[in-house]
Amino acid sequence: MKKITDLQGTFALNNGVEIPYLGLGTYLADNDQDVVDAVKTALNLGYRHIDTAAIYKNEEGVGKGIRQSNVAREEVFLVSKVWNADQGYESTLKAFEASLERLGVEYLDLYLIHWPVAGKYKDTWRAMEKLYREKRIRAIGVSNFLRHHLEDLLETAEIVPMVNQMEFHPYLVQQDLIDFCNDKGVQYESWSPFMHGKVFDAKSDVFDGLTGKYNKSIAQIILRYNLQKGIVVIPKSIHENRIKSNADIFDFELTHSDINYLDSLDKGERTGPDPDNFDF
Q1: pLDDT tens column, 170-209
Q2: Catalytic residue among 56, 132, 214, 225
Q3: Which domain holds residue 17?
Q4: What pairing do the DSSP bridges indicate for beta strands 18-20 and 10-12?
Q5: Where, in this chain's numbering, is substrate bound (predicted)?
Q6: Least packed by Cβ within 10 Å: which of 14, 216, 241, 249?
């Protein structure tokens, strides 16, 4: 396991591309000055990984934030995703071009299939393989794919996905899926590490012992837990103090027993949609 060292540390994807293991998520960040400032703030603090998606409707603001930062485009690991309504071969190619135009960039570092739309994701993947071969994207992957979706995709895929971005937190570990991805060389990535804020509510006294032991917040404990499990994580915030606090996780290390304790909280609790049962 690679040592977790600093904000610009990376994990290597199966094609050799390095992905910064801590990034800024932009889900629910409006396409206005808030997302521009959040991206600019994160990059100027040292973040090098920015995650957006077509459905977030904030790609213009994300692109503007990158341009207004003190960081060159080639130093930023920029991620977007093809939305469900745009899946299919030709429509994915068009959706990709539209995302580039909104972002104001010439390439993406990672492009993901947002959800496993039945009957479409294989054609979507073929389009992404084409874009990858043309070097329009440095890495391609999927999001919200369970094991059976991955197995189905791998039956015809010429390129193994480099990433699978999933809901992940101590109440939804899905260790079998993590193990499967690791076995196939697919980097696991976490969205909603804080369960849309639910980990901070009253029931979260289960974290009290850890926050006291390490003198860190619940958020910092959970983010460190992600990284020590080898999982890329992209906490979302538009607030400078939280963006800064989320990056203050490199001066401590969870013990194996504490990681096992956090794993043991798993109860299959989703805050987002079920990849086997969504209707959008």
Answers
A1: 999 999 999 999 999 999 999 999 999 998 885 567 898 9
A2: 56
A3: 10-264
A4: antiparallel
A5: 114
A6: 241
